[in-house]
Amino acid sequence: MKKVETKKKDIRALTREQLRDFFVENGDKAFRGNQVYEWLWQRSAHSFDVMTNVSKETRSMLEANFVINHIKVDLMQRSSDGTIKNAVRLHDDLVVESVLIPTKTRTTACVSSQVGCSLDCLFCATSRLKRMRNLNPDEIYDQVVAIDNESRLYFDRPLSNIVFMGMGEPLMNYKNVLSAIDKITSPEGLGMSAKRITVSTSGVPKIIKKMADAGVKFKLAVSLHSAIDEIRTSIMPFNTTFNLTDLREALEYWYNKTKSRITYEYVVWEGINDTQKDARALVDFCRFAPAKVNLIEYNPIDDGAFQQASKKAVEMYVDVLEKNGITVTVRRSRGKDIDAACGQLANKS
User: Fold this and answer.
1) Which among 97, 150, 169, 265 is annotated as catalytic?
2) CA-wise closest residue to 88 among 77, 103, 101
3) Distance in angstroms (rounded) separating the CA atoms of residues 107 and 158
4) Which of 110, 121, 286, 342 is the catalytic position?
5) Is domain 72-338 given the CATH code 3.20.20.70 in the classification?
6) pTM (2 d.p.)
7) Confidence band of 338 (pLDDT split at 50, 70, 90)
8) So where are the chain's domains?
């Protein structure tokens, strides 16, 4: 009779308690689960062989029952401005990208949450890739670990901030993103402060409310780009499902629950949203709660359908926002020469 091979379970899908139970059920002490759990998360072990405080017999038992589906950085590219982009190969040979963005005072990890993307923003290279699957919590976690290692190696300091602004819509992978953040912020994981993490969404009202109810401590950013429904729908077609009225209601709910300022990511394009009317609509949209607007430099994705607005148009936005008491920052893109800037992640490597 042909032997049927049993697929090994990814050990990092187990909780600490489940690991402890596994060892008890196999005639060992529960504390062994604690040791292995520490290796998996605090020490980011990629194999059972490195778990030197665990006996060879125990390591063999783990090898027979489990796998560690760790990521592999297939290709690392370095920009002339210091930005680093990783092409990250997953256990099933799919690839996502993550980015390390350095400044004089900090290093930020921009991580992916999906292979491809669930949404259809016309200006974003990632949206042209079909969504193949959500990333697991450990795959998100591993991206952060890899960038932290690179930050220490190349910039002599640990990672200071994390933004979920890579490939995919984080709120369409809500459960796994929150699980990854729990591990990243836990003393049993990387121990980072949730206040140093920003989750950026194109706007999924139901999930924004769910996060508010959950009492999350990380920051929220919204990829807005227009506060006029017709224009937003023309560049972000999913807006017909998650329209601005519903989005604003959800964001009001978020602020009332969390008292946390909302950041809006906003690109000004020539001939699309570069008028006084557009700027005033943005002011009106922001009025309900303390807000910050990041005006982001556009990064072309080859077809020329979208063009960065003039410097004069961007200055007009700054003037209108500031006169209405809204904090605004003009963000210059980093890593454009290696396609690592906002909206450019598309696995060209």
Assistant:
1) 97
2) 77
3) 8
4) 342
5) yes
6) 0.91
7) low
8) 9-67, 72-338
